[in-house]
Specification:
- The protein is an all-alpha fold and 197 residues long.
- 51% of the residues lie in helices and 0% in strands.
- It contains nine helices and no strands.
- The chain has helices at residues 15-33, 37-45, 53-63, 67-75, 80-86, 107-115, 128-144, 148-155, 161-172.
- The radius of gyration is 17 Å and the shape is globular.
Length: 197
């Protein structure tokens, strides 16, 4: 694999470029989860952090409830795991298979699944940050049609998932040296918007 291209950190960029990255992230979230972009903005306006927007929609789709219902529970202080349990969402739903054992910040999350046989996965309890990381790996790898390991690699170089989304999207557009050997099937820079995974 070639050298990883790492752009300037988000906090050193101009307000315009940061705003554009956030906007692109919202578009990706809306497309993947098949909701209007305005709905994503409304969730954010209710004090849901950008990194947690996909979690709201992930849980809402599986629970078959409106995203606002999940936000209400979150703003009342419930953890993502407590909300999941409330709707019968099991630990296996969050699992994403990977070919390598991830390091921080993912190691602990995947460690839960590696340490136990599948029949014992119902005993797993995920912390908020673990839920966020697992949901993002699924969302970004599905949407941009890249291996989960690529998302994990990029996350190691960026402070948040808005920046990770930007970097992975740039990679899909052919801006990375390590994409050169992937062929034209990865070259248009547009996610699939699969949703409801």
């Amino acid at each position: 694999m070639g050298a990883l291209f790492v752009p300037d950190r988000v906090d050193t960029q101009t307000p315009f470029s940061v705003s554009a990255q956030v906007g692109n992230f919202h578009v990706a979230v809306a497309n993947y989860y098949q909701v209007p972009q305005r709905e994503v903005i409304v969730l954010r306006e209710r004090r849901i952090r950008d990194d947690e927007l996909p979690v709201v929609l992930f849980i809402a789709q599986r629970a078959r409830v409106r995203p606002a219902t999940i936000v209400d529970m979150r703003l009342r202080g419930m953890s993502w795991w407590d909300i999941s349990v409330r709707y019968g969402i099991r630990p296996e739903v969050y699992y994403v298979p990977v070919v390598v054992t991830p390091g921080p910040p993912y190691g602990k999350a995947w460690g839960h699944y590696k340490k136990k046989p599948r029949k014992q996965w119902d005993t797993i309890v995920l912390a908020d940050d673990e839920v966020v990381n697992l949901v993002h790996v699924r969302f970004l790898s599905d949407y941009y049609d890249v291996p989960p390991e690529r998302v994990i690699e990029v996350r190691g170089h960026h402070p948040d998932y808005v920046a990770v989304n930007y970097e992975v999207a740039r990679g899909r557009s052919g801006h990375h040296d390590d994409d050169d050997d992937q062929g034209e099937d990865r070259g248009n820079g547009k996610g699939k918007g699969k949703g409801k995974h």
